[in-house]
Design goal:
Elements (H helix, E strand, L loop, with lengths): L1 H15 L1 H8 L6 H19 L5 H16 L5 H10 L6 H4 L1 H8 L4 H21 L7 H26 L5 H25 L1 H6 L8 H6 L3 H26 L5 H21 L15 H12 L3 H21 L8
Length: 328
């Protein structure tokens, strides 16, 4: 039975992102199942939030119901039935496997389950808030990204403290101080990349509306979004990696994969007019296929040098060329 639950969760993970599933499935036994379960729990409420077949009030009801059932360590047949009715078949995998995800969740330790409940619940609360609240300002953007991604950074850091090696109280405190920025860095890149899809398909915009009131050149607005990430979030994301203690190699490689893919995505999004077209900006498939092997073969010093050189080059470019966008 356990093997069937694991297989179903692995399939949900792979269906969502074949490339991103690789570093998760390569995590060691301390981290693999808890992180896979959390990823699928998060994806479940994310699919409700993104549904084009539901009104905001029903989304709020379904997310709230999902989280209430999670508190009871059980799944909601009502949520599953409704979402299978309104979700396109190619996106319905998390609801087809919903019961298997909760069954695998039930095998976690009490401490692991508490982390999943806490951070999934906070993510859900934030999603519900922003289903009724537009993103008008940079502060709104940061708040939304905290709920949908900063919570993920905090979940991962708390799991590292629980199951990892050599995580002293001091290191945990310093990691926690940078964990939110690690999540914001990733989420803001997704928001930048998905501008057209969000506007057309989901009828929502996650770019601060105040930016468009002050500027008519879309590329300048794009670069303002990109500069915010490189100035305010990437430095702390790099610091997060640099603080990881020894004895957690698979977690270390997982973080490298996320950090490197984000940096490379940032490079191709900056100044890219295709962001405003229906042509989705993507990293090359061969790059993503080779990424895990490439980052895991580097020494920590080599990878940290790659990250820091990227940051210094970009900050220097904006400063020296006097092209620094107005900061939020």
């Amino acid at each position: 039975m356990l093997e069937r639950w694991v297989k179903a969760n692995e399939q949900s993970l792979i269906n969502q992102s074949r490339s991103f599933s690789l570093p998760i499935l390569n995590l060691d036994d301390r981290f693999r199942v808890p992180i896979m379960v959390e990823y699928n729990l998060n994806k479940t409420i994310d699919t409700i939030e993104d549904s084009t077949g539901l009104e905001p009030d029903e989304k709020i009801y379904l997310i709230t119901t999902f989280c209430k059932y999670l508190e009871r360590d059980s799944y909601s047949p009502e949520v599953q039935k409704r979402m299978l009715e309104v979700t396109p078949e190619e996106e319905a995998f998390v609801f087809n496997n919903y019961e298997a995800t909760l069954s695998l969740y039930s095998t976690l330790s009490s401490e692991e389950k508490e982390l999943a409940r806490r951070w999934t619940g906070e993510m859900g609360e934030g999603m519900c808030t922003f289903l009724k609240k537009p993103i008008n300002t940079h502060h709104d953007l940061n708040e939304y990204c905290y709920y949908v991604a900063g919570t993920v950074g905090l979940y991962l850091t708390n799991l590292l403290k629980l199951n990892g090696s050599n995580v002293s109280d001091e290191i945990f405190e310093r990691l926690s101080a940078n964990a939110v920025s690690f999540g914001l860095f990733q989420q803001k890149l997704n928001i930048i990349r998905d501008f057209v899809e969000d506007k057309i398909t989901k009828k929502r915009s996650f770019w601060p509306q105040s930016y468009f009131e002050k500027e008519t050149d879309n590329v300048k607005i794009l670069n303002r979004m990109c500069f915010d990430v490189v100035k305010n979030d990437i430095p702390r994301a790099i610091e997060y990696f640099g603080l990881l203690p020894p004895g957690n190699d698979s977690y270390d490689y997982f973080i490298r994969f996320i950090l490197c893919s984000g940096i490379e995505y940032w490079k191709i999004l900056k100044s890219e007019r295709s962001v405003f077209s229906e042509i989705k900006v993507k990293l090359a498939r061969i790059f993503m296929q080779n990424l895990y092997g490439n980052v895991s073969s580097q020494t920590r010093e080599e990878f940290l040098d790659y990250c820091q050189r990227f940051y210094q080059e970009e900050i220097s470019f904006w400063t020296e060329s006097s092209q620094e966008p107005s900061t939020p």
